[in-house]
Amino acid sequence: MKAEVQDRGNALSGEALTFTLEENEELHVLHPQQIIAYQGPSSGRADRFMDVKGMYRKRKLIRADMTGPCRFTAALPPGYSVKTVTLDGKDDLLYDFKHLFYYSKGINMQTRVLSVKNMIVTRDVVKVRFSGSGSIGILTEGVVCEAALDPVQPLYVDAGSVIAYPENAVLELTVYGNHLASQHMSYHWKMTGNGPVLFQAGRQNRRFERENDEDGLFKRLLREILPFGGVFIK
């Protein structure tokens, strides 16, 4: 499989990816409505309902199974890009389903039900875990960063910026720093364990631009003076 990013042009209008699949190669696209061009046999695309246990019982999730030889282009939402992650069969990362764009042949998808606390924060019921060897494409906002967990020394990551974390990780929703710092930050995951954590920078970048471009001085003062003003005053 080959994936090419098309000319970005205006970043606000999004970008597109063109995939080229060779004979017998397969790719499962989880947002089939984003496919805007296709070249190949008509039988090379087969949409089907996904059988993902425990996920969105009242929703019908559809994926497009693309089989080579073919070539197709998928549009991405404004502000998003796709990061390809290669799996070797030893991975144990849990992903948000909303971040997944595609996965290749040889990859199996499983679900993990979240705790009630995690459901409230992430507004999701399950995480997705992949097994097998192949590649997956993750929708991200801005640069994707990676940090290694430690069994003792915690890693604090903005809860809304986390893309994936190890299944063995221990998570606690919290804030950190001194009194002023803890009052003016979004909730973070305090994480310990072994393995990498993936997180994105775009969400915070957009917040920074919005606060500096749209906020008046009075609103900025309230956000900085009031306890948890940075959380509740948007």
What class would the helix/strand composition place it in? alpha+beta
Shape: elongated
**Strand content of the residues, in percent?**
over 45%
Instruction: Indicate the mean pLDDT.
Output: 80
Number of strands: 18
Which segments are poorly predicted (pLDDT under 50) over 5 or more consecutive residues?
Answer: none
Which sequence of SSEs, written as H and E, runs from N to C?
EEEEEEEEEEEHEEEEEHEEHHH
| Cα-to-Cα separation, first versus last residue | 43 Å
**Number of H- or I-type helical stretches:** 5
Helicity range: 10-25%
**Rg of Cα set:** 20 Å
Main β sheet profile: 11 strands, antiparallel
Pfam family, one: AIM24
InterPro entries: AIM24, AIM24_sf, Trp_RNA-bd_attenuator-like_dom
Protein name: AIM24 family protein
Can you walk me through this structure?
The strands form three sheets. Strands 3, 5, 6, 8, 9, 10, 11, 12, 13, 15 and 18 form an eleven-stranded antiparallel β-sheet that branches. It contains five helices and 18 strands. It is α+β, with helices and mostly antiparallel strands and 234 residues long. The protein has a domain of 86 residues. The mean pLDDT is 80.
Summary keywords:
four-stranded antiparallel sheet; 234 residues; AIM24 family protein; 5 helices; alpha+beta; 46% strand; 18 strands
Indicate the topology:
Layout: E1 2-5, E2 16-21, E3 26-29, E4 35-39, E5 45-49, E6 62-67, E7 70-75, E8 80-88, E9 93-95, E10 100-104, E11 107-113, H1 116-122, E12 126-141, E13 144-149, E14 155-158, E15 162-166, E16 170-174, H2 179-183, E17 188-192, E18 195-200, H3 202-214, H4 217-225, H5 229-232
Antiparallel strand pairs: 1-2, 2-7, 3-6, 3-10, 4-7, 5-6, 8-12, 9-12, 9-15, 10-12, 11-12, 13-18, 14-17, 15-18, 16-17
Protein name: AIM24 family protein
Organism: Paenibacillus durus ATCC 35681
